[in-house]
């Protein structure tokens, strides 16, 4: 399986990989020759990992020399991946719609028993309780509450009517942050450093951009104060 491109990597994993790359780069710069176990232990403390992992990061960086080589690969089953066959998935879906999403408000335990009983009757292996609950949690909360007649939950999940508006320019200015859809590279090594943060100040009345701030640092109160008109 080929490695993902930088824009396909989770932002949190990418930011952590950039931090690790900087630490390993500085570590190797000051230790061109042999390194001691104590040196590696210091690196492990800096990147908040075990000494064995620190050795692995050094090896990966020496072999690849890129931030991408240090991206932590997520373990376990890919998000959204399902292991049940279509027949059992259909039984779970049908049982939820016919027996759980009703005004009688049966419990989750009752739903689990019904699903497992229906699977056994069809000659299929019964799914685990966690799997059934996971399918249940995929249902939009407001839809589930309406079908079950849970009025309090419906009220809590409904949007509050009304609008937020301003009657004149600069009466209200909103500030928001986003990561720019570009990668900044080192001017010498041409290796990717990361994606910059863009902070925009937007006038609510005119919907015009009144200022912006571009930085490699994560959003903070300094990002708001530094917005340039």
From TrEMBL:
Question: What's the short name of a Pfam family annotated to this entry?
Answer: HTH_28
Q: Name one GO molecular function term.
A: nucleic acid binding
Q: Which InterPro entries match?
A: InsJ-like_HTH, RNaseH-like_sf, RNaseH_sf
Q: Where is the Insertion element IS150 protein InsJ-like helix-turn-helix domain?
A: 19-77
The alphabetized UniProt keywords are:
Plasmid
The superkingdom listed in its UniProt entry is Bacteria
Instruction: State the name under which the record lists this protein.
Output: Transposase
Tell me the classification of the organism that encodes this protein.
Bacteria, Pseudomonadati, Pseudomonadota, Alphaproteobacteria, Hyphomicrobiales
